[in-house]
Each structure stands twice: as C-alpha cells, then as structure tokens.
Amino acid sequence: MLAFSIPLAGLAADADGHKAPAGPVILRVVGDIDKTNVDGEAHFDRRMLQQLPQHGVETTTPWTDSQDHYEGPLMRDLLAHLGVTDGRVNVLALNGYEAEIPVSDFYDYDVILALKRDSEAIPIREYGPLWVLYPFDHDAALLSEKMRFRAVWQVMKINVR
C-alpha cells in the first residue's frame, strides 16, 4: 500500500477555527461539528480539502475495471479537523443516494475522501468530484454488500450525528 501525508499548511483559521472557502464549494459538512465557517456549517472548496493531510491508496473497486491510485484526506482526519471522533455520519451524493456510516469505520480502515484518481481530479461522470473510498484490496471484509453501500461517490454533503 502506498500512503503519504502532507502537513496541514496555509489553512488560516477564522474565529471559529475554520477558514471560509474562496472557490466553489464542493463539500458541506453539517450537524454535530465544532468548527464551522458558513451559517453553522463547514463548507470546503477543492483547495481546502487538498490542504488537509493527503493519503494515497492503490485499490480496485467493485465499480471500476482496474487498480488505480486514489488520493485525498482520510475521512478520520477530515472529521477530526471539525472536532468529530465518534458517532455516525450520513453521506449524501449528488444523485440523492445517502448512506449512514459509523465513524468507527474511519478508524478501522484507511477510508479516504478521494479527490483524485491517478493524479487527476475525478469527474462527476466517473464517481467524482468526491468519493468516500474504502481500500477494497486491503481487507476482504470490505467487499461485503454492507461495506460497498457505504462507499458513496459524487459526495456533496456529510451530516454528522
């Protein structure tokens, strides 16, 4: 498994500890979070997500034909940045699909919020721009139907409970 981290840099905090996005918002996190930046929510543009520590994983998925390299922040790092370390999240996709995921999954597995596949931004038509991606090749338990339903693509919103 290829993994790497990039230190959090350049993410200046406002009074609530979370900078407002400068570019188009691609992710909203709502609910039981400590850090907000827009009307009690945490909004992220692509650059903000890229400034979080990045993690890479080589994996196949049940929906793709090849092993690819995916990059993005670990879900546990994103949530910890917002003050979340336990509970559940509901992840909502652009097409209306929603999955409930226990935060413990993000500590049991190196689940990433994939921003890139093979060094390129993931287009909407190919599961992007954001994908809650489990490292399927690293544990056979992740190939269960239950776990596949938690791998939400076209992510637009996370509701923390």
Automatic annotation (TrEMBL):
SUPFAM superfamilies per the record? Oxidoreductase molybdopterin-binding domain (SSF56524)
Specify the superkingdom: Bacteria
Q: Which InterPro entries match?
A: OxRdtase_Mopterin-bd_dom, OxRdtase_Mopterin-bd_sf
* Residues annotated as domain Oxidoreductase molybdopterin-binding: 60-135
Q: What is this protein called?
A: Molybdopterin-dependent oxidoreductase
Species name: Vreelandella gomseomensis
Taxonomic placement: Bacteria, Pseudomonadati, Pseudomonadota, Gammaproteobacteria, Oceanospirillales
